[in-house]
Protein backbone atom coordinates (compact mmCIF):
# COMPACT_ATOMS: atom_id res chain seq x y z
CA UNK A 1 0.00 0.00 0.00
CA UNK A 2 1.48 3.28 -1.12
CA UNK A 3 0.41 6.86 -0.53
CA UNK A 4 2.20 10.01 -1.60
CA UNK A 5 0.72 13.41 -0.90
CA UNK A 6 1.28 16.87 -2.31
CA UNK A 7 0.30 19.92 -0.29
CA UNK A 8 -1.45 22.60 -2.33
CA UNK A 9 -1.91 26.08 -0.88
CA UNK A 10 -4.77 28.13 -2.32
CA UNK A 11 -5.51 31.73 -1.45
CA UNK A 12 -9.15 32.69 -1.11
CA UNK A 13 -10.67 35.79 0.46
CA UNK A 14 -7.35 36.85 1.93
CA UNK A 15 -6.62 33.61 3.81
CA UNK A 16 -4.56 30.60 2.77
CA UNK A 17 -6.28 27.24 2.36
CA UNK A 18 -4.09 24.14 2.29
CA UNK A 19 -5.15 20.97 0.49
CA UNK A 20 -3.50 17.59 0.29
CA UNK A 21 -3.50 16.55 -3.38
CA UNK A 22 -2.94 13.29 -5.17
CA UNK A 23 0.55 13.52 -6.74
CA UNK A 24 0.66 13.87 -10.52
CA UNK A 25 2.71 10.71 -10.99
CA UNK A 26 -0.01 8.72 -9.21
CA UNK A 27 -2.80 10.54 -11.04
CA UNK A 28 -1.24 9.71 -14.40
CA UNK A 29 -1.63 6.01 -13.73
CA UNK A 30 -5.32 6.57 -14.48
CA UNK A 31 -6.15 6.34 -18.22
CA UNK A 32 -6.21 9.66 -20.07
CA UNK A 33 -9.88 9.44 -21.07
CA UNK A 34 -11.00 8.76 -17.52
CA UNK A 35 -8.86 11.57 -16.13
CA UNK A 36 -10.22 13.98 -18.72
CA UNK A 37 -13.81 13.02 -17.91
CA UNK A 38 -13.30 13.45 -14.16
CA UNK A 39 -11.52 16.76 -14.70
CA UNK A 40 -14.37 18.09 -16.86
CA UNK A 41 -17.01 17.14 -14.31
CA UNK A 42 -15.02 18.70 -11.50
CA UNK A 43 -14.37 21.87 -13.50
CA UNK A 44 -18.10 22.27 -14.18
CA UNK A 45 -18.93 21.93 -10.48
CA UNK A 46 -16.22 24.40 -9.49
CA UNK A 47 -17.35 26.89 -12.15
CA UNK A 48 -20.90 26.79 -10.79
CA UNK A 49 -19.67 27.19 -7.21
CA UNK A 50 -17.38 30.07 -8.22
CA UNK A 51 -20.31 31.81 -9.93
CA UNK A 52 -22.38 31.49 -6.76
CA UNK A 53 -19.48 32.81 -4.69
CA UNK A 54 -19.00 35.77 -7.03
CA UNK A 55 -22.72 36.57 -6.88
CA UNK A 56 -22.60 36.43 -3.09
CA UNK A 57 -19.64 38.81 -2.97
CA UNK A 58 -21.33 41.27 -5.35
CA UNK A 59 -24.51 41.16 -3.27
CA UNK A 60 -22.49 41.83 -0.12
CA UNK A 61 -20.75 44.79 -1.73
CA UNK A 62 -24.09 46.23 -2.85
CA UNK A 63 -25.64 45.70 0.57
CA UNK A 64 -22.79 47.54 2.26
CA UNK A 65 -22.99 50.39 -0.25
CA UNK A 66 -26.74 50.73 0.28
CA UNK A 67 -26.45 50.77 4.06
CA UNK A 68 -25.80 54.52 4.25
CA UNK A 69 -28.41 55.71 6.76
CA UNK A 70 -31.14 57.87 5.24
CA UNK A 71 -33.54 58.22 8.16
CA UNK A 72 -36.94 59.82 7.81
CA UNK A 73 -37.03 63.34 9.20
CA UNK A 74 -38.93 63.59 12.46
CA UNK A 75 -39.42 67.36 12.44
CA UNK A 76 -39.93 69.75 15.36
CA UNK A 77 -42.50 69.01 18.02
CA UNK A 78 -45.68 71.13 17.77
CA UNK A 79 -46.17 73.88 20.34
CA UNK A 80 -48.56 73.14 23.17
CA UNK A 81 -51.94 74.87 23.06
CA UNK A 82 -55.25 74.77 24.88
CA UNK A 83 -57.19 74.73 21.63
CA UNK A 84 -58.98 71.43 20.97
CA UNK A 85 -57.79 71.23 17.37
CA UNK A 86 -54.24 72.10 18.34
CA UNK A 87 -54.34 69.44 21.06
CA UNK A 88 -55.50 66.83 18.54
CA UNK A 89 -52.76 67.87 16.14
CA UNK A 90 -50.16 67.72 18.90
CA UNK A 91 -51.22 64.16 19.76
CA UNK A 92 -51.17 63.24 16.07
CA UNK A 93 -47.68 64.67 15.63
CA UNK A 94 -46.46 62.88 18.73
CA UNK A 95 -47.74 59.55 17.36
CA UNK A 96 -46.30 60.29 13.94
CA UNK A 97 -42.90 61.18 15.37
CA UNK A 98 -42.85 57.97 17.42
CA UNK A 99 -43.76 55.97 14.30
CA UNK A 100 -40.96 57.61 12.31
CA UNK A 101 -38.49 56.79 15.06
CA UNK A 102 -39.63 53.16 14.93
CA UNK A 103 -39.26 53.07 11.14
CA UNK A 104 -35.73 54.46 11.36
CA UNK A 105 -34.74 51.93 14.03
CA UNK A 106 -36.28 49.05 12.06
CA UNK A 107 -34.53 50.21 8.89
CA UNK A 108 -31.14 50.25 10.61
CA UNK A 109 -31.77 46.78 12.05
CA UNK A 110 -32.82 45.50 8.61
CA UNK A 111 -29.68 46.91 6.98
CA UNK A 112 -27.46 45.23 9.57
CA UNK A 113 -29.30 41.92 9.15
CA UNK A 114 -29.04 42.17 5.38
CA UNK A 115 -25.27 42.72 5.47
CA UNK A 116 -24.84 39.85 7.95
CA UNK A 117 -26.91 37.60 5.69
CA UNK A 118 -24.71 38.26 2.66
CA UNK A 119 -21.56 37.86 4.75
CA UNK A 120 -22.77 34.41 5.77
CA UNK A 121 -23.60 33.65 2.14
CA UNK A 122 -20.02 34.47 1.10
CA UNK A 123 -18.70 32.34 3.94
CA UNK A 124 -20.91 29.43 2.88
CA UNK A 125 -19.89 29.80 -0.77
CA UNK A 126 -16.20 29.68 0.23
CA UNK A 127 -16.82 26.56 2.30
CA UNK A 128 -18.63 24.95 -0.62
CA UNK A 129 -15.61 25.46 -2.90
CA UNK A 130 -13.40 23.87 -0.24
CA UNK A 131 -15.69 20.84 -0.05
CA UNK A 132 -15.61 20.42 -3.83
CA UNK A 133 -11.82 20.58 -3.87
CA UNK A 134 -11.46 18.07 -1.03
CA UNK A 135 -14.09 15.75 -2.49
CA UNK A 136 -12.32 15.74 -5.83
CA UNK A 137 -9.10 14.57 -4.22
CA UNK A 138 -11.02 11.64 -2.75
CA UNK A 139 -12.40 10.92 -6.23
CA UNK A 140 -8.93 11.02 -7.73
CA UNK A 141 -7.51 8.79 -4.99
CA UNK A 142 -10.25 6.23 -5.65
CA UNK A 143 -9.51 6.34 -9.38
CA UNK A 144 -5.83 5.70 -8.70
CA UNK A 145 -6.72 2.81 -6.40
CA UNK A 146 -8.95 1.21 -9.04
CA UNK A 147 -6.04 0.98 -11.44
CA UNK A 148 -3.59 -0.59 -8.99
CA UNK A 149 -2.28 -4.02 -9.99
CA UNK A 150 -2.88 -7.08 -7.89
CA UNK A 151 -3.23 -6.50 -4.19
CA UNK A 152 -1.52 -3.12 -4.31
CA UNK A 153 -3.86 -0.40 -2.99
CA UNK A 154 -3.75 3.36 -2.76
CA UNK A 155 -4.42 4.77 0.69
CA UNK A 156 -7.13 7.48 0.55
CA UNK A 157 -7.55 7.91 4.32
CA UNK A 158 -5.76 11.26 4.33
CA UNK A 159 -8.05 12.60 1.61
CA UNK A 160 -11.17 11.33 3.38
CA UNK A 161 -10.08 13.02 6.58
CA UNK A 162 -9.48 16.24 4.68
CA UNK A 163 -12.97 16.01 3.17
CA UNK A 164 -14.53 15.38 6.58
CA UNK A 165 -12.89 18.50 7.98
CA UNK A 166 -14.09 20.70 5.12
CA UNK A 167 -17.59 19.24 5.41
CA UNK A 168 -17.67 20.14 9.09
CA UNK A 169 -16.68 23.71 8.25
CA UNK A 170 -19.34 23.81 5.54
CA UNK A 171 -22.01 22.56 7.96
CA UNK A 172 -21.06 25.23 10.50
CA UNK A 173 -21.17 27.90 7.78
CA UNK A 174 -24.54 26.61 6.57
CA UNK A 175 -25.92 26.78 10.12
CA UNK A 176 -24.78 30.39 10.48
CA UNK A 177 -26.22 31.25 7.05
CA UNK A 178 -29.58 29.78 8.04
CA UNK A 179 -29.63 31.79 11.26
CA UNK A 180 -28.72 34.95 9.33
CA UNK A 181 -31.51 34.30 6.83
CA UNK A 182 -34.03 33.90 9.65
CA UNK A 183 -32.77 37.09 11.30
CA UNK A 184 -33.16 38.95 8.02
CA UNK A 185 -36.71 37.64 7.61
CA UNK A 186 -37.53 38.81 11.14
CA UNK A 187 -36.01 42.25 10.53
CA UNK A 188 -37.92 42.55 7.25
CA UNK A 189 -41.20 41.77 9.02
CA UNK A 190 -40.45 44.34 11.73
CA UNK A 191 -39.69 47.00 9.13
CA UNK A 192 -42.90 46.25 7.23
CA UNK A 193 -44.91 46.47 10.46
CA UNK A 194 -43.28 49.78 11.40
CA UNK A 195 -44.07 51.23 7.98
CA UNK A 196 -47.66 50.00 8.17
CA UNK A 197 -48.05 51.65 11.56
CA UNK A 198 -46.71 54.93 10.21
CA UNK A 199 -49.01 54.75 7.18
CA UNK A 200 -52.08 54.08 9.32
CA UNK A 201 -51.25 57.06 11.54
CA UNK A 202 -50.88 59.34 8.53
CA UNK A 203 -54.11 58.09 6.96
CA UNK A 204 -56.00 58.42 10.25
CA UNK A 205 -54.94 61.96 11.10
CA UNK A 206 -57.39 64.32 12.85
CA UNK A 207 -60.18 65.81 10.74
CA UNK A 208 -60.39 69.52 10.13
CA UNK A 209 -62.43 71.27 12.82
CA UNK A 210 -66.05 72.40 12.28
CA UNK A 211 -66.99 75.80 13.64
CA UNK A 212 -70.05 78.08 13.73
CA UNK A 213 -67.84 81.14 13.56
CA UNK A 214 -69.20 83.29 10.68
CA UNK A 215 -66.52 85.93 10.87
CA UNK A 216 -65.00 84.70 7.62
CA UNK A 217 -68.34 84.29 5.82
CA UNK A 218 -69.07 86.44 2.79
CA UNK A 219 -71.79 89.07 3.26
CA UNK A 220 -75.19 87.98 1.92
CA UNK A 221 -76.93 89.85 -0.93
CA UNK A 222 -79.54 92.08 0.73
CA UNK A 223 -81.10 93.86 -2.27
CA UNK A 224 -84.45 92.66 -3.53
CA UNK A 225 -84.53 90.77 -6.77
CA UNK A 226 -85.67 92.61 -9.89
CA UNK A 227 -88.93 90.68 -10.13
CA UNK A 228 -89.95 91.87 -6.65
CA UNK A 229 -89.39 95.51 -7.68
CA UNK A 230 -91.36 95.33 -10.94
CA UNK A 231 -94.96 94.46 -11.64
CA UNK A 232 -97.32 94.40 -14.51
CA UNK A 233 -100.52 96.29 -14.05
CA UNK A 234 -103.53 95.98 -16.24
CA UNK A 235 -105.63 99.13 -16.34
CA UNK A 236 -109.37 98.90 -16.80
CA UNK A 237 -109.42 101.68 -19.42
CA UNK A 238 -109.65 100.35 -22.93
CA UNK A 239 -107.41 103.16 -24.22
CA UNK A 240 -104.53 102.55 -21.89
CA UNK A 241 -103.02 99.03 -22.42
CA UNK A 242 -100.51 97.57 -20.13
CA UNK A 243 -98.04 99.64 -18.22
CA UNK A 244 -94.79 98.66 -16.59
CA UNK A 245 -94.33 100.36 -13.25
CA UNK A 246 -90.85 100.84 -11.83
CA UNK A 247 -90.57 101.73 -8.19
CA UNK A 248 -94.18 102.80 -8.00
CA UNK A 249 -94.05 105.16 -10.98
CA UNK A 250 -96.35 104.56 -13.90
CA UNK A 251 -94.96 104.91 -17.36
CA UNK A 252 -97.58 106.55 -19.55
CA UNK A 253 -97.78 106.72 -23.31
Concise structural overview:
This protein has 253 residues and is mainly alpha-helical. It has helices at residues 24-27, 32-65, 84-146, 157-203, 226-229; strands spanning 6-12, 15-21, 230-234, 242-246, 249-250.
* Mean pLDDT reading: 81
Q: Tally of extended strands?
A: 5
In terms of structural class, how would the helical and strand content be classed? mainly alpha
Largest sheet: 3 strands, antiparallel
Helix content: 55-70%
| Elements, N to C (H/E) | EEHHHHHEEE
CATH class: Mainly Alpha
Number of H/I helices? 5
Radius of gyration: 43 Å
Strand content: 5-15%
CATH topology, anyone? Answer: Ferritin
CATH architecture assignment name? Up-down Bundle
Strand order of the largest sheet: 3-4-5
**Straight-line distance between termini:** 147 Å
Name the shape in a single word.
Answer: rod-shaped
Poorly predicted parts: 1-15, 215-221, 230-238, 243-248
Strand and helix map with partners:
Layout: E1 6-12, E2 15-21, H1 24-27, H2 32-65, H3 84-146, H4 157-203, H5 226-229, E3 230-234, E4 242-246, E5 249-250
Antiparallel strand pairs: 1-2, 3-4, 4-5
Helix pairs in contact: 2-3, 3-4
